[in-house]
Amino acid sequence: MKINEIYRSVQGESSYAGLPCIFVRLTYCNLRCGYCDTEHAFYEGRDYTVDHVLEEISHFKCQLVEITGGEPLLQKEVYPLMNSLIDSHYTVLLETSGSIDIGKVNPKVVKIMDLKCPSSGECDRNLYTNIDTLQPYDEIKFVIGTREDYLWTKKIVEDYRLTERFPVLLSTVFNQIQPKQVVQWLLEDNLRVRFQLQIHKYIWEPSTRGV
Known about the structure:
This protein has helices spanning 50-58, 78-87, 147-159, 179-188, 200-203; strands spanning 2-10, 20-26, 46-47, 64-68, 91-96, 110-114, 139-144, 168-172, 194-195. It is an alpha/beta fold and 211 residues long. It has one domain: TIM Barrel (Alpha-Beta Barrel), CATH 3.20.20. The longest helix has 13 residues, at 147-159.
């Protein structure tokens, strides 16, 4: 498989935010979201085998691993990689865009799945059938860039009863909308979601790679 980078940092998002985590970032993406902050993963990368990945991450002495991208599910080798990580007793997170069927993902993997909002430019690529494949411990993430995004998210959350079924995460497009504005909206609507910031962008300079 082609991998863009492997590194250890702290988890910047999700319910696992703040925990030490190994990131395995795969190359390629089928979407072109207008706010993407990982364009370097579209094409750059080196070839790895599953065993090579396992060997490299073993040096970090950390049991939390996130598989991310790009869109990691574009490469078929990611499935045996996730299975091998589970068999090796890692806690495995998968960050996926929600545009590809997640049915083949090992159920022991914690899936953190985006549903793309209108301002991303990729809203029509959401695969809503994935929602019924998710487990109660999986998470759904919305990235809010505009008032339209928020209202769209609120409707999706209500229509699919998402907060009754999964942890739901709301974050903001960095430097596009004020976090306090989105917090104000969700408090006014009593939307029972978890608001989050990309904490790695506050710890390091926002464009820093490998963190």
